[in-house]
Amino acid sequence: MPAERFVEQLNIQIGNEFAAHQQYVACAVYYDALTMPQTAGFFYAQALEERGHAMMMVKYLVDQDAPVRIPGVASPEVDFEDLVAPVALALEQERRVTVQINELTKIAREESDFASDQFMQWFIKEQVEEVATMSDLLRVVERSRDDPMEVENFMAREHSSGEASDPTAPKAAGAGA
Question: Around 172, how many Cα atoms within 13 Å sit in the side-chain half-sphere?
Answer without folding.
Answer: 15
